[in-house]
Amino acid sequence: MEKQKSVAVVGGGLVGAMNACYLSSRGFKVDLYEARQDIRTMEIVRGRSINLALSCRGRQALKKVGLEDQVVKDGIPMYARMIHDLNGTLRPIPYGKSDQYIMSVDRRKLNETLLTAAEERPDVTLHFQHKLISCDLEKGKLSFKMNGGADVEVTTDLIMGNDGAYSAIRKHMVKRPRFNYSQEYIPHGYMELTVPPHNGEFAMAINYLHIWPRNEYMMIALPNQDKSFTLTLFMPFDMFDQIKTGDDVMRFFMEKFPDSVPLIGEESLKETYFKLPPLPLVSVKCSPYHVSDKAVIMGDAAHAMVPFYGQGMNCGFEDCLVFDEIMEELGNDLSKVLPEFSVVRSPDAHAICDLAMYNYIEMRESVNSRWFLMRKKVDACLHAIMPRVFIPLYTMVSFSRIRYHVVINKAKKQDVLVDNSIQALMALTAVGGGYLAAVAISRHFNINSITDWIHNMADQILK
Ligand code: FAD
Ligand code: EGO
């Protein structure tokens, strides 16, 4: 029998914890190293987004490690978006059929579920308060700083870099020859606010992704299990900076999101706004994702994206699934699997980074409530007319596992089709209009011969 291979998973966030499960199932001896302390024993967890939208790709990946049901049972389905306009009018638009919905899941709970599942699997050890300080990717050597201050050195067969958007593993890859890398901070930052329960009940309709589309200013809300909603406000940093006092906050919200003020509560709004600074949003693309047969990056470490599609975690989870599929296909041979993973996955990850950025730009420039509703209705209408040929972009991204780069190509083709259909429709209207006008004119002047001639012509064409 072959000697058991070891893997060091760096990062115990969503993707790292999932990878620990997958790699244990593949027979690896897994050591997971996480810089923070064990979130399962923490009182409050500071930082990034409280809840996330889980969709098809993420669920498929959870399913293969047997965790889908457990995660979904704690999630809240969102069957439609609820568009809030400036007057506070609410308009729901379904995502599709009743089986097409996204799920609001608690980030912390999801991470805890994944860590516990990993820990229960054979040959998995979790090491918290281990921060990666340096590494030698070719030799499989890593050194961590323990919370106490001591350094820990380890050598491993495979380094799995899942240490997020500011990845230390990736920083080492950047120094290597012919490594492609780009990153972009967008002008927008985000801030989270809370809508508490009202009289012990959800203060807004529960099974929706609430959206306040206001071009540059965008706000969304996802439901939590405790009957609150987490609101996320996206706006340019310079606008965040211009709001300096409690009165400024109130003026801003009354102007842009008036219906949300009583829901959040005036006092709580003023307090929360100044409690934490807005956080930045970064988009990172790189390639390849591996170093020989020794190291590979996945999740935000490989492809951080702006959150305007709700796909970052879903894509990171799908990475784990795709890697596992390639392991299966190539018989766990790391010298073949790692390069193949880079080749297969980077075009798709780049595609969703681009789609997310494109969505950001489009929403920022032109999407207010009316435009949002119009676009989604046109999409639904076209899909109803041509269910196979026209599938809305959001549907392909969120409710299918069509490869992201294929999604882009399909969307382009659909756009051409729609453009041509509109042109054809306009041409037909012009011809039809001309015909009717000719009939009307000839009738008016009572020129029967011409009327007959036109009718004959029409009969000829229609035959
Ligand atoms: P992370 O979750 O960042 O985990 C990385 C882990 O590595 C952390 O635990 C960190 O402590 C650890 N680490 C870092 N450095 C070191 C080191 N040197 N040594 C050891 N450990 C280290 N995605 C969706 O699919 N749906 C959504 O609705 C959605 N909404 C979002 C909203 C916002 C505002 C943001 C910012 C993101 C959103 N995302 C969403 C994206 C999602 O949060 C990320 O894609 C996902 O968390 C990536 O998981 P990860 O495990 O790769 O990275
Ligand atoms: C015209 C109309 C062009 C994240 C609408 C583009 C994103 C975009 C951030 C929503 C849903 C999960 C999200 C839709 C569009 C999460 C999402 C969407 C936001 C912001 C988000 C939709 C967390 C874009 N999905 N989405 O179709 O409902 O449409 F609004 Cl700011």
Automatic annotation (TrEMBL):
Catalytic function, reaction form: L-kynurenine + NADPH + O2 + H(+) = 3-hydroxy-L-kynurenine + NADP(+) + H2O
EC number, as in UniProt: 1.14.13.9
A Pfam match: FAD_binding_3
UniProt domain FAD-binding: residue ranges: 6-320
Subcellular location: Mitochondrion
Keywords: FAD, Flavoprotein, Mitochondrion, Monooxygenase, NADP, Oxidoreductase, Pyridine nucleotide biosynthesis
Class of enzymatic activity (EC top level): oxidoreductase
Function according to Swiss-Prot or TrEMBL: Catalyzes the hydroxylation of L-kynurenine (L-Kyn) to form 3-hydroxy-L-kynurenine (L-3OHKyn). Required for synthesis of quinolinic acid.
Family to which the UniProt record says this protein belongs: Belongs to the aromatic-ring hydroxylase family. KMO subfamily.
Protein name from the UniProt record: Kynurenine 3-monooxygenase
Species: Branchiostoma lanceolatum (Common lancelet)
Lineage of the species this protein comes from: Eukaryota, Metazoa, Chordata, Cephalochordata, Leptocardii
